[in-house]
Write the structure tokens for this entry.
Amino acid sequence: MADSLTDYVRENRSGLVTDLVFAVVWVTIVTVVFEILDGPDWAYYAAMLAGVVAYFGFFASLEVAKRKEN
């Protein structure tokens, strides 16, 4: 199992790093905004959930742009 995990990480390193950076940046921005605005908890969690939609929307638009470029 350790070998397969190592192979997976080796093959997908750049994608994993990109995903991690997106998640850290999104959570940091939402947390800072809600610390400043002192918004309600439900809005905070909704903004965190919106990160999932933003992630897939952002990377889907990148794929479309790459296809149009070629």
Observations:
- The radius of gyration is 16 Å.
- The CA atoms of residues 31 and 51 lie 12 Å apart.
